[in-house]
Amino acid sequence: MTDHPSPAAFRARFPALADTVHLASCSQGALSDALTAELFEFQHTIREHGAPWDSWMAKVAEARASFARLIGADSDDIAVVPSASEGAYQVASTQSWDERPGLVTTDLEFPSLAHVWLAQRGRGADVRYVPHHDGLVDAEDYAAQLTGDTRLVSVPLISYANGVRFEVSDIVALARESGARTFVDAYQGLGVEPVDVAELGCDYLVSGSLKYLLGISGIAFLYVRPGLRDDVSPPLTGWFGRTNPFEFDPRHLDYPEHARRFETGTPSIPSAYGAVAGLSLVHRLDANRVRDHLRVLTGKLQQRLLDAGERLRSPLTDERRGPLVALVDTDPDALAAFLAARRIVCSARGDVLRMSFHYYNDESDLDAVVRAIAEYRASQ
Fold first, then answer.
1. Sign of CA dihedral 339, 136, 164, 289
2. What burial letters (b/e) apply to 188-223, b meaning 16+ CB within 10 Å?
3. What CA–CA distances, in Å, run from 272 to 42, 53, 77?
4. pLDDT at position 204, please?
5. 132 CB-near residues (< 8 Å, 6+ apart)
6. Contact yes or no for 275/67 (Cβ under 8 A)
7. 1-7, Cβ contacts within 8 angstroms, sequence gap of 24 or more
8. Which secondary structure element, helix H or strand E, spans residue 128, and what is its range?
9. Is 248 left (phi over 0), alpha (psi -120 to 50) or beta?
10. Taking the complete model, does pTM exceed 0.85, yes or no?
């Protein structure tokens, strides 16, 4: 039975938070004792066993199964890929754009994925953008872009740009009615937002471990709805994309029926250890409690910043605001550097400073960053 630790008990698993305010989980989760232990264990396997492939493959399988359980999927529905961008490419490259060229995305999409979609123009895709209005995108905005020739609809769970929570289930339902497939980028929310692929109804979902899943870079997971058929076999492939990777037959190319047909070369083994560490912590949490905890913290931070005369880009309502607050600034990199010198870690993107929260954050972090921002303004 999961014990569902309190925020204070969860915070104790992250020793660095004793002297550091970590508000950059949208970029990299804080270092936990579990992650330190798993990375040490990886080093130990090389020192003791040299090349323990069986152990390493078991760790990759554990990471795959743990991710699947988090989103309510089966292990066979998950492909292990190096990044969300490659996951997006694997989906895009296996679609035919001849009869249904429409590919619908949004300006609030993370650029790396958006660039994958744009690259499909060379294969005949007609990339269409859903505009935002005051930082918001509604299901109705997507509906206006859906036509009978739409093949793929891409929607973020949470936008990296301003933390807006998308109406994913509604958008997926609208896309399905138009005959389009759906791709969900869950990277900016999975780990602090409840996600169930059966409830979302999406065809594809991607996320990686370095942000709210509390691992490190180098590994991501692509969910593929069971029974989904590709128009084109994956052109980017490798030995892990075979029915039996350890058959070592250079003259034979086959693809398994399940999601592993999208895998390529050897996965990052250290990253698999890191993913297992982070997922083991996330599985102890109740996602709804985490979301409620973050709503309180982000709501209080937003109000205090507004009271101080700051300009924000993140949504003001709890329903549409995800786990981050986006502060508009003329030089957010300089502000981030000022805060970093005071051991307050944030993430600058474009013209905003992003302050993102996890279950380990508390009001002392909020107090610290508000004081430091006021000090920075006074120094200008």
1. positive
2. bbbbbbbbebeebbbbbbbbbbbbbbbbbbbbbbbb
3. 10, 13, 17
4. 98
5. 106, 107, 108, 141, 164
6. yes
7. 2/283, 2/284, 2/286, 3/284, 4/284, 4/285, 4/286, 4/289, 5/284, 5/285, 7/293, 7/359, 7/360, 7/361, 7/362
8. strand 126-130
9. left
10. yes
Distances (CA, A) of 4 to 8, 10, 32: 11, 9, 17
User: Which two tokens mark 182?
Assistant: 């759906």
Count of beta carbons in the 10 Å neighbourhood of residue 22: 23
Unique residue bearing structure tokens 């070369």:
265
276 near 38, Cβ under 8 Å? yes
User: What's residue 126's pLDDT?
Assistant: 98
Amino acid in position 59: K
- The three-class DSSP label of residue 210 is coil
Cα distance between residue 26 and residue 314, in whole Å: 14
CA–CA separation, 258 vs 204, rounded Å? 13
Q: Spell out the SS3 assignment of 225-286.
A: CCCCCCCCCCCCCCHHHCCCHHHCCCCCCCCCCCHHHHCCCCCCHHHHHHHHHHHHHHCCCC
Coil, helix or strand for 62? helix
Query: What span, in angstroms and rounded, lies between the C-alpha atoms of 306 and 125?
Result: 43
Are the CB atoms for 221 and 263 separated by under 8 Å? no
**Amino acid at the residue 34:** A
| Beta-ladder partners of 321 | 164
* Tokens describing residue 273: 């250890």
Q: Is 72 exposed, middle or buried (0-12, 13-18, 19+ CB in 10 A)?
A: middle
Q: Count CA within 13 A, CB hemisphere, residue 309.
A: 3
Residue type at 199 in one-letter notation: E
**Buried residues in 311-349 as b, exposed as e (16+ CB within 10 A):** ebbbbeeeebbbbbbbbebeebeebbebbeeeebbbbbb
How far does the chain reach from its first CA to its final CA, in angstroms?
53
Residues of the chain by 3-state class (helix, strand, coil), percent to 5:
40, 15, 40
**Within the chain, which residues score under 70 in pLDDT?**
1-2
d(CA 203, CA 183): 6
Give pLDDT, residue 1: 40
Cβ atoms 255, 43 nearer than 8 A: no
* Digit-coded pLDDT (tens) for 13-27: 999 999 999 999 999
